[in-house]
Design brief:
By secondary structure, the chain is mostly beta strands. The protein has a single domain (6-127), classed as Immunoglobulins (Immunoglobulin-like, Sandwich). Helix content is 0%, strand content 66%. The protein starts with 5 loop residues before the first strand and ends with a strand.
């Protein structure tokens, strides 16, 4: 019986550096919300970094969706990834460029693996003061 994949880490950040010698990941500029002076606002660049384990061997499909209305979210990223062993920790680095936020609010974010929900969270986008 296959177990459900487990999410070990979910971060929104400015960058991820992978050391060519060791393969270690350095996470740069972790943040949890976004502030903008005007809307609609296009965020220039961010990374959604996640680490999974307990995935069955083989090819899997990850989808990340976002929206102000949890009932009408739009898929932003859909990508396959390969797993060799359920003991492996799989780091997935997802670059997001020019993501448009039409209005301030708490945007619902859903991460699915093989069409099964793995994480439901939110990203707050607020009106900047001043």
């Amino acid at each position: 019986m296959n177990s459900k994949p487990q999410l070990l880490a979910w971060l929104t950040c400015d960058g991820v550096h992978i050391d060519p010698g060791t393969g270690k990941h350095t996470i740069l500029g972790v943040f949890s919300d976004i502030h903008a002076h005007t809307f609609p606002f296009a965020h220039p660049f961010m990374i959604w970094f996640l680490t999974l384990t307990d995935c069955a061997p083989g090819t899997h499909q990850m989808r990340i969706s976002l929206g102000l209305d949890p009932q009408a979210m739009q898929p932003l990223i859909e990508r396959p990834f390969e797993v060799k062993s359920p003991l492996n920790r799989i780091n997935l680095i997802n670059e997001i460029r020019g993501l448009v936020f039409p209005a301030p609010g708490d945007y619902s974010l859903l991460v699915e693996i093989d069409d099964e929900p793995l994480l439901a969270t939110s990203l707050t986008v607020a009106q900047a003061r001043g």
